[in-house]
Amino acid sequence: MGPGFLALSPAERTVRLAGIATAPWFTTLAELAAEGYYADPGNGGNRDERSWVMLGYEPRLPGSR
To answer: What whole-number distance in Å separates Cα of residue 11 and Cα of residue 24?
Structure first.
């Protein structure tokens, strides 16, 4: 099994991630993490709209300022 991920050098981490990047389970995991990170806070993710703030997104109806 080898050393834990955090014990690897940055180059070794890159190699390890490249080996699983296209695996179906990893793709699903990455998609679910992104959905939670950028989700509407009313659905349980994106606490305090922080990811929206980092992107400069303002949740409002078009034309309302």
So the answer is: 23
Element holding 42 (H helix, E strand): none
pLDDT value of position 6: 93
For residue range 21-54, what is the model confidence (pLDDT) as tens digits? Answer: 999 999 999 999 988 888 888 888 888 889 999 9
Terminal CA-to-CA distance of the chain, rounded, Å?
Answer: 56
Banded pLDDT at 1 (limits 50, 70, 90): low
Note whether residue 8 is domain-resident: no
Range of the domain at 62: 23-65
**In total, how many domains does the chain have?**
1
What single DSSP character describes residue 45? -
